[in-house]
Amino acid sequence: MLTDDKGTEVVVARLPVGADAERASEAVLSVAERHRANRFVLDRDRRRFIACRARLRQLLGERLGVPPASVELAYGARGKPVLAPRFNGSALRFNLSHCGNLAVYAFSSRTDVGIDVEAIRVVDEADLIAAESFSPREREMYRDLPARDKPLGFLNCWTRKEAFVKAIGAGLAHPLDSFDVSLAPGEPARILRVQNTDGDCGWRIGSFFPAPGFVAAVVNEMPS
Q1: Alpha-carbon 105 to chain mean position
Q2: C-alpha dihedral over 172, 150, 160, 191, to 10 degrees?
Q3: Fold of 116-221
Q4: Per-residue pLDDT for 79 more than 90?
Q5: Which fold has domain 2-110?
Q6: Residues 4-27 pLDDT 10s
Q7: Domain ranges in the chain?
Q8: For residues 171 and 164, what is the distance between their CA atoms, to the nearest angstrom?
Q9: Is the Cβ–Cβ distance between 1 and 104 less than 8 Å?
Q10: CA torsion angle for 125, 136, 98, 28 (degrees, to 10)?
Q11: Considering the chain, what percentage of its residues have pLDDT values greater than 90?
């Protein structure tokens, strides 16, 4: 568990596997979540969804002082999960992401937050994705990286952009070229531009390695 001086808390969890763990996890889900789980074509994806949501409910329950099964969730216009209105008094915001059996969760008591995680690997279509989804400034920074740094540079950019659009509640419907983030390995994670304004514009970003072989990013709104 990581907590910064602005009240943003990050929890990293390995998702449990096995039939007993699946049954225990499914028991705390809502009816809607169980229906959603059953829509997954692959059993692997269904099990991961169940485990990821059950762990979220456990973490939220601990912070709200209620049993995991009593946590009520709602969804924003773009599908971002939020607490149902009955919990509005808590002011707790959260976000989650998972890759394989690794899940990351971000919690904030004051501000909106987004998080994303990816396995560090060579993405075969990285150059094409960068050309289509990165901003002109990001494409130039990515193109100038040494070949050995491009795989991590690409994933740095992708997780940071994904975390930002999740923080603002827009998801990938938000134009990814409308803002710039840093991406070079070894350099600090920064939001370089939002729309027509240089700088973080009230948002801040962090990048970290939640487990060997994974990279993640978390973005939260700075308190006013």
Answers
A1: 7
A2: -110
A3: Ribosomal Protein L22; Chain A (3.90.470)
A4: no
A5: Ribosomal Protein L22; Chain A (3.90.470)
A6: 545 789 999 999 888 888 999 999
A7: 2-110, 116-221
A8: 9
A9: no
A10: -130
A11: 76
